[in-house]
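Fig. S4 source data, part A: sequence.
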Amino acid sequence: MDVEIELEIPFHDVDAIRVAWHGHYAKYMEIARCKLMDKVNYSIVEMEESGYVWPVIDMRIRYAHPLIFGQKFKVRATLTEWENRLKVDYVFFDAQTNKRLTKAYTIQVAVEKTSGEMQYASPPILLQKLGVST
């Protein structure tokens, strides 16, 4: 399962040489991940309402080519793991040329909201939303 979003680098996201500051990539990934989870009807609000929060516990980014001011780019977010954790892979690419610019991933785990205990398997509600279990 995946989604693809298109964004444009605004001036307030760039440094003195008009390159997107590396920290903003997490924001772009978050936008794509939220769209992905909306697609399965398990948004951040729905996660919390189901009794779980899903903090990001690991994030890796491989910057191959910079994003620059005014550049239109796409982020493809793909859900690649869901049984024991959520792993989302991301690919950033230029909107005009389709040149791959950056690869990344995030890993989230379910934490029971009231107890604060990490779950070692994804809760049934996630599997139901994904249509992989009842």
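Fig. S4 source data, part B ends here. The helical segments are 24-39, 44-49, 124-130.
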